[in-house]
Amino acid sequence: MTTASETPDAISFRDVSQVYRSPERIVEALCGVSLDIRDGEFVSLVGPSGCGKSTMLMIASGLLTSTGGEVLVEGTPVRGPQTLPGVAFQDALLLDWRTVMGNVLIQLEGRKLLDDAHRARAGDLLRRVGLTGFENAYPRQLSGGMKQRVSICRALVHDPSILLLDEPFGALDTMTREQLMLDLHRLWYEQRKSVLFITHSIAEAVFLSDRVAVMTPRPGRIERIVDIDLPHPRSPGLQVTPEFNAYVSQIHGLFQARGYLT
């Protein structure tokens, strides 16, 4: 029988490298990346543009095959597209001809899970992110932030144990981004999914995360992992405390020392 100590990590990157080849050039995106995300842990990746953050997420999802090393999801090597994790990207990628509820339920249709219990879960998720009353609206009737809420609900509706989130707030205005950050933290705190979160915002990473992995410029490597020892649940007031700002300054200093910022 497997004991708690033998439970595999949610995601394990083991000496992962990625090289993109074309007739014009060879680009080394990642070099020897190793990182473990434990069960129920929220881990953010921060680093300069082009350092391979999104490449790591694509490899973990099985949408891209690494050229070196391997990735394990719950102890199983990734050999192709993964059905276990919930995934959300910077673009909400909603279908224009489907309603809000229809866009959330498409995840269940593909998994053949379209039953009353999952329909109820879809409705509950929409309620939790403030979209009650918009179930029958179409994407063209939604703001950017509302579309991203639908995208996150779609990623969560099949109750995955793992979430892969690639800058889901990147294209939003500051206030909407702040609210969605709080919504995501609340959902994570209630459900304790294992999360790999990509962001360019140091403050966002510190607020949400148990650990922040700081990456180097291309080829991307993990330069340092910063443990965020701040209590959960977290409220907006945390962001003005000395403890919070000490972590932001620490990570900011790593980038300054190298002569660049995120």
Explain how this protein is built:
The protein is built from seven helices and ten strands. With 262 residues, the protein is an alpha/beta fold. The protein has two domains: 179 residues, P-loop containing nucleotide triphosphate hydrolases (Rossmann fold), CATH 3.40.50.300; 66 residues, no CATH class. The protein is globular, with a radius of gyration of 18 Å. The mean pLDDT is 91.
Write the layout of secondary structure elements.
Layout: E1 11-21, E2 26-37, E3 42-46, H1 53-61, E4 68-73, E5 76-77, E6 86-88, H2 100-111, H3 116-128, H4 144-156, E7 162-166, H5 174-191, E8 194-198, H6 202-208, E9 211-215, E10 222-227, H7 242-258
Parallel strand pairs: 3-8, 3-9, 6-7, 7-8
Antiparallel strand pairs: 1-2, 1-4, 4-5, 9-10
Helix pairs in contact: 2-3, 2-4, 4-5, 6-7
